Amino acid sequence: MNNVYAMTEIVGTSDKSIEDAIDQAINVANQSLRNLDWFQVSELRGHIQNGRVAHYQVALKLGFRYEAKSG
């Protein structure tokens, strides 16, 4: 079966880690979007405070599959 996908871009943030920022972003997106199938990290950045990393920002492209109408 062939699939059709759409992409959207979101940014997840975390004061813990890059992985946590990704997990947070996907968790929230999954509450609104169905059929999430893949992600791609498109950008990494962060905020520095007092010479230390204060939080991480990860831009993600999310791919979600369109549902075909039956019948």
Which terms summarize this structure?
3 strands; elongated; three-stranded antiparallel β-sheet; Dodecin subunit-like
What CATH first level would be assigned? Answer: Alpha Beta
Mean pLDDT figure: 94
String of helices and strands? EHEE
**Judging from the principal axes of the Cα atoms, what is the shape?**
elongated
Based on the coordinates given, report the CATH architecture.
2-Layer Sandwich
Note the main sheet.
Answer: 3 strands, antiparallel
Strands, count:
3
Stretches where pLDDT is under 50 for at least 5 consecutive residues are: none
Give the class from helix and strand content and strand pairing: alpha+beta
N- to C-terminal separation? 15 Å
- Fraction of residues in H or I helices: 10-25%
Main sheet strand line-up: 1-3-2
Rg is 15 Å
Strand content: over 45%
CATH topology: Dodecin subunit-like
Which homologous superfamily in CATH is the superfamily? Flavin-binding protein dodecin
Number of distinct helices:
1
Count of folded domains: 1
Could you explain how this protein is built, in words?
By secondary structure, the chain is of the alpha+beta class. The chain is elongated and about 60 Å long. The chain is built from 1 helix and 3 strands. The chain has a 3-stranded antiparallel β-sheet, with helices on one face. The chain has a single domain, classed as Flavin-binding protein dodecin (Dodecin subunit-like, 2-Layer Sandwich), CATH 3.30.1660.10.
